[in-house]
Amino acid sequence: MTIEIIPLRGIPRVKRGDDIPRLIVECANASNIELKDGDILVISQKIVSKAEGRTVSLLDVEPSPFALKIAEYTGKKAEVVELILRESRSIVRMSNKHIICETNHGFVCANAGVDLSNVNGGKSATLLPVDPDRSARLIREGIFKLTGKDVAVIISDTHGRPLRRGVVNVAIGCSGIKPLKNYRGKHDLYGYTMRVTIVAVADELASAAELLMGEGDEGVPVVIIRGYHYERGDDKATVLARPAIEDLFR
Amino acid sequence: MTIEIIPLRGIPRVKRGDDIPRLIVECANASNIELKDGDILVISQKIVSKAEGRTVSLLDVEPSPFALKIAEYTGKKAEVVELILRESRSIVRMSNKHIICETNHGFVCANAGVDLSNVNGGKSATLLPVDPDRSARLIREGIFKLTGKDVAVIISDTHGRPLRRGVVNVAIGCSGIKPLKNYRGKHDLYGYTMRVTIVAVADELASAAELLMGEGDEGVPVVIIRGYHYERGDDKATVLARPAIEDLFR
């Protein structure tokens, strides 16, 4: 079985209140792509955030005294630092260049996902969706309502990583797919029990989708992955966030 | 443009001295898959290590006094710990369960890639290839010689990660493809210069391939990725290893 990674081209610029499932279905129809049961839609958090109105004008942000201090230390705008702090549960690492945060959802990433690029020339910022698993579920339900097709949805974002250079796309929300696949207890050819192996398939799917997402002005914010036999389930993408107590690198 | 991820089924059990390019070409022919210019072959390090004779009988390993001590602390076999130490440039984290090493190549992973599973019921171990970039180059050259096709080759391994649960497949060797893709300096729609964005596409390709590699007894050790427009280049996969001095988590 071959897996196909299919870009969904032609999604218009998304704004607050837009109906993402409808945009996806209309765009698929216009591209002669018929959604199928078992398709996985990988959707960039950027369009989800915009549709959910998670764009903030920096003029409306009042930096706290701590944000002002951190802004001076890191050279970032104080309003942006204030937003980063509001989006964070804790700060995991800080240098004069980087603020690595644990987001309110529990993911660890730079700037808690607050993004200046692509919005109003740096005068506004986008924040991550409040609950990306819920966003994924609503999109999945919306697509089922419009098409009758049972797809899985992954909301993705690009994150830097310790130990390895370069960012990769990972899953920050999902619906209809188990993000971790368990190979625990499988035996090999010699009857020797393999070590526990749990594969982060939702992250691998997000990474596969990124190969088509990255290019262009706003890129390709929706990618369909077809032919991958995933395990259905209700687990949230937050199971991918490794708690500090399990982490040798926190 | 759609990307296809195509499993190459039917690769026989690999042993020392086997000619991997020939096995791949024969297997592709038998499966009616014609290799094309621009295909990316993602190859599990396991079969490369075996072909290169990187299998060691534990009976031939004399543990050092330090290895004996660590074996007692971690509950691992002393001979295995000895191999882990020999494969390591440094130890990055150690607990009573885990030894996270910087391999002689510079990658950080558990047990320096020394693997007991799948070889002789735990009486032998496989080590990573001595130089996975060289292995990738030789396989690429071999395939060119047999078919006249210019493919890229990625040697992959599954690694655990800080911050996120689950292992993912990453690139530890490559040939013919730039492992990092540079979006530095691209402008967005508003003329606002985006932050530096460097995407680890070789890791994303390895992760995409894993979606088909994982299953089965020995799994599917070779996967073809077709339709991805990669940048050609001579960079080694070791550029993906983030040096400690650049790493907020070391």
Provide a concise account of the structure shown.
The structure is a homodimer of 250-residue chains. Chain A is of the alpha+beta class and 250 residues long.
Task: Provide keyphrases for this structure.
CofE-like fold; 60s Ribosomal Protein L30, Chain: A; homodimer; alpha+beta; 6 helices; 250 residues; 3-stranded antiparallel β-sheet
Protein model, in words:
Two copies of one chain form a homodimer. Chain A is α+β, with helices and mostly antiparallel strands. The first copy, chain A, folds into two domains: 4-52 and 132-242, CofE-like (60s Ribosomal Protein L30, Chain: A); 55-126, CofE-like domain (CofE-like fold, Alpha-Beta Complex), CATH 3.90.1660.10. Chain A is 26% helix and 22% strand. Chain A contains six helices and twelve strands. A five-stranded mixed sheet of chain A has the order 1-12-2-8-9. A three-stranded antiparallel sheet of chain A has the order 4-5-6. In chain A, strand 8 (152-159) and strand 9 form a beta hairpin. In chain A, helix 1 crosses helix 5 (132-147) and helix 3 (65-74) packs across helix 4. Chain A starts with a strand and ends in a 24-residue tail after the last strand. The model of chain A is unreliable at 187-191 (pLDDT under 50). At the A-B interface, strand 1, strand 9, strand 11 and helix 6 of A face strand 1, strand 9, strand 11 and helix 6 of B.
